[in-house]
């Protein structure tokens, strides 16, 4: 190694006899490993590993830029991506890949630091920071992968494939109920009641909130309409304590489950 080479490449060919220089070099390698993973290897280690690390880093940055652009200019695309169970599994695999890659690059960076040549007072700090950043980055990526797989499983269990249902008057109407059932309570009483109406042609959705204390709620033709032809709770008549909209579910569940024998089968 010539003096010219050492001067031109202080990261790859440092003056190992200077603890000050080696300590400064070690801090630079640790910082670069966080800011631009793969760059320490390109500058001071295995260039093939470094190019691989840089390539994955640039790919991740490009992906983040694309997602940021979609968030600002085509937000529905982002929602579609992160609500697809298959896409979530792909995201989980990518995050696990980056978690493993960061561990490999961080451990290799520790090797390149050459602790025995650094100042004794700085060795513990350099090692602690490198390990903490490695655990933080890789752990975050691994946890993100876990969340992605969990979300994918949740979506698959909730939105199971089934026979298609034709729209009614060009609309898909979905009832959303938020209940407060518990082990120490009888039945379920929906305290949050909303109807989401989706246009079958345009996909435009409208949400309508219904007050839980609505009285004299009318029914479409069926068992409840036969029982309460003038509306639920008309003249303060019902089979539970409070004759309001959110009591209908409770009454049918506890008092008259035989009214709708196919309810469980039909979801």
TrEMBL record:
The chain crosses the membrane at residues 26-45, 52-74, 86-105, 125-146. Keywords: Membrane, Transmembrane, Transmembrane helix. It comes from the Bacteria. This is LytR family transcriptional regulator. It comes from Orlajensenia flava.
């Amino acid at each position: 190694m010539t003096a010219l080479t050492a001067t031109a490449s202080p990261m790859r060919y440092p003056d190992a006899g200077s603890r000050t220089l080696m300590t400064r070099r070690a801090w630079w390698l640790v910082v670069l490993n966080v800011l631009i993973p793969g760059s320490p290897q390109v500058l001071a280690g295995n260039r093939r590993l470094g190019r691989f690390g840089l390539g994955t880093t640039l790919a991740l940055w490009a992906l983040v830029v694309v997602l940021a652009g979609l968030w600002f200019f085509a937000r529905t695309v982002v929602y579609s991506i992160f609500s697809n169970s298959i896409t979530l599994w792909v995201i989980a695999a990518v995050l696990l890949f980056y978690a493993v890659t960061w561990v490999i690059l961080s451990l290799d960076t520790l090797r390149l630091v050459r602790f025995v040549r650094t100042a004794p007072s700085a060795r513990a700090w350099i090692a602690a920071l490198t390990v903490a950043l490695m655990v933080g980055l890789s752990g975050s990526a691994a946890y993100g992968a876990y969340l992605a797989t969990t979300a994918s499983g949740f979506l698959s269990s909730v939105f199971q494939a089934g026979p298609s249902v034709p729209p009614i008057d060009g609309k898909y109407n979905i009832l959303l109920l938020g209940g407060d059932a518990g082990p120490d309570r009888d039945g379920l009483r929906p305290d949050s009641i909303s109807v989401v109406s989706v246009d079958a042609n345009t996909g435009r959705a409208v949400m309508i909130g219904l007050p839980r204390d609505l009285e004299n709620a009318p029914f479409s033709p069926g068992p409840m309409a036969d029982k309460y032809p003038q509306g639920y709770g008309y003249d303060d008549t019902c089979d539970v304590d409070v004759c309001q909209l959110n009591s209908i579910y409770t009454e049918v569940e506890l008092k008259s489950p035989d009214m709708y024998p196919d309810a469980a089968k039909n979801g």
